[in-house]
Amino acid sequence: MAAAAAAAGARHGTLDLLLSATVDCNAIFKGLQSIFQEQEMTETIHNWGDLGYLATYVNKNGSFANLRIYPHGLVLVDVQSYNDMKREEETEQLLNKVEERMKELFSKDIKRVKRLPAIVRGDAIDKYWPTADGRLVEYDIDEVIYDEDSAYQNIKILHSKQFGNILILSGDVNLAESDLAYTQAIMGSGKEDYTDKEVLILGGGDGGILYEIVKLKPKMVTMVEIDQMVIDGCRKYMRKTCGDVLDNLNGDCYQVLIEDCIPVLKRYAKEERMFDYVINDLTAIPISTSPEEDSTWEFLRMILDLSMKVLKPDGKYFTQGNCVNLTEALNLYEEQLGRLYCPVEFSKEVVCVPSYMELWVFYTVQKKTDV
Predict the structure, then answer these.
(1) Is 2 left (phi over 0), alpha (psi -120 to 50) or beta?
(2) What does the pLDDT read at residue 9?
(3) Residue 289 has pLDDT above 60, yes or no
(4) CA 148 to each of CA 75, 122, 165, 217: distance values in angstroms, whole numbers, following the listed order
(5) Could you report the per-residue pLDDT of 66-109, keeping only the tens digit for each?
(6) In 10 A of CB 51, how many CB atoms?
(7) By CB neighbour count within 10 A (0-12 exposed, 13-18 middle, 19+ buried), where does 249 fall?
(8) Can you name the residues that pair with 45 across neighbouring β-strands?
(9) What 3-state class would DSSP assign to 362?
(10) Catalytic pick from 140, 276, 281, 314?
């Protein structure tokens, strides 16, 4: 019984009210006290005088409520219970009664009332994932399709009613079946001719870029992905994204190498192997704003330098950047482009990626030819 309850998660409902600062805290507390007593909830009160009140109410069914009254007029009600239908109804009824009573007693003094959708914590299906700039987004996830740990990362594929299956790597939303806009942007937004071209993809384990480029009849595409388990999961559960290109690691015009891209790039540079396009689908630009102290910045600079060494003079390097709001990190990335072994020029494009729920920056980098 306990295990079943734990699997259901905990439902956290909230009600926020902002009143004029002239309202008596004690009057608010006394006005609401009877509602919790009607629920046969055991009461504990902390009275801080000029600092306001905190009252906790505990029910025998395992639910509890916190009533926090601040002297400047902010009233917070939090109710937590098991996430089942009965408790959900009880929580909503309790919050409704509190809101109604507050409006009866203090209608002239209420400046704002705010009810948020309940947050479900610890549920079997996690619906909450952060954006790159630190905002919390609730997805319409209804099924865990795949959840495994590889030697490199946690790999999840979750089903969203709106976006289809979503690949999430170590808590970072990577790509959904709805995100063709991402794949098109990192390939040059339809402006490039890949016919008979040599293409190198760094990362890209979901197979989306490889699948779209193969359609364009390149001479050869080499994809270097370090994590076989990403490929395995996407081959089975992201078919709308990768099609059949991950069914075999070698095709008529492509090969997939299960390797670390750094040694591969060094090997290609030594062999003087050159590509028309290098597409970096590895990590996003670091959020950290201290590149001298961040090994991820060093990694990205190394990737950039090595990629330039295997890029033809008229070739193009495509990569994702980061969320458009992270201007400082993007500026630092652009500074790194000025520190490469060869002079480069770049352009950028802002694209709406559906499942990211934020605007995303993509870069095109080319060697300067007028130096």
Answers:
(1) alpha
(2) 87
(3) no
(4) 43, 18, 15, 34
(5) 999 998 899 999 999 988 888 889 899 999 999 999 999 998 89
(6) 12
(7) middle
(8) 55
(9) strand
(10) 281
Of the candidates 233, 237, 212, 238, the one whose C-alpha atom is nearest the C-alpha of residue 223 is: 212
Number of H helices, E strands in the chain: 10, 19
Counting residues of the chain whose pLDDT is more than 90, the rounded percentage is: 77
Closest CA to 25 of 64, 56, 2, 53: 53
Handedness of CA 244, 248, 250, 251 (dihedral sign): negative
Residue keyed to tokens 């008229």: 314
- pLDDT band of residue 35 (cuts 50, 70, 90) is very high
pLDDT at position 287: 55
* Alpha-helical segments (H) within the chain: 2-7, 25-38, 85-106, 180-186, 208-214, 228-237, 239-242, 261-271, 295-309, 327-337
User: Is the CB of residue 207 less than 8 Å from the CB of residue 238?
Assistant: yes
Amino acid at 79: V
**CA atoms within 13 A of residue 207's CA, in its CB half-sphere:** 28
Kindly tell me if the per-residue pLDDT of 225 is higher than 90.
yes
pTM above 0.85, yes or no: yes
**Six-digit token string for 354:** 């559906």
First to last CA, the chain: 73
281 included as an active-site residue: yes
- H helix or E strand, kind and range, residue 70: none
Average pLDDT of span 305-329: 96
Cα Rg of the chain, angstroms:
27
Instruction: State both tokens at 51.
Output: 């600092």
